[in-house]
Model the fold of this input.
Amino acid sequence: MHESDRTAEEHGSELRVLVVDRFPIVWHALKTPLIGNGLAKSVDYASDTGAAYRKCVDGKIDIVVTDVTVAEDRDGIRLCGLLKNSARPPRVLVLSSTARPDFVASCVISGVDSFVYRTADPELAISAIAALTGEGQPIWFVGDSGKRLPKRDSSLDVVAANLTGREQEILSLVLLRLSNDEIAARLHLARQTVKNYVSCVLQKLEVRNRAELFTSPFGTGYIESVESGSYAR
Done:
């Protein structure tokens, strides 16, 4: 048995972590302190989201650490959505190479439990994993200013589950105060199509208009914190 594995067992940790990243160095950087300090029993690795999903389907992974994009645009976020709909969903930490506000918003809507931008000290990523075991409030860190976002409301996940993938994407952009024209240009859709999507989203969220949406749980807290400048482009 490897010495680090004995250390984890001696500390009684049963936490099983899966790191999903193109570069194994990220896995090694997390595995050493997690195992060595007895925070995790195992730290597995997957180089793509398909392999990661297959490792998680048996329900033996407790925490998944992934980037926003592993191999394809936002595939890490899509992986989170799939895992959150599984029989035994793991907690998900996005250790992200980008803190673009639209990406952060997509993470929120997809049910990500914690977010750490990679400009943070390495210790913060370890603290974020520890927090997902119940040892403190989930960490949302989106920039070098050091500002952390408030804990997400778990009830939002239930509402978001009723939205289609496109509707979630539209919602994330609306929350960032983009107009229908701006959303249409970004997503290469007709303005009327965007308008129809927005109306459908507002109806599902049981709000009458954008102004009411912005004062709802979806429009306050973490999204406003992202907009306030606590991120790096």
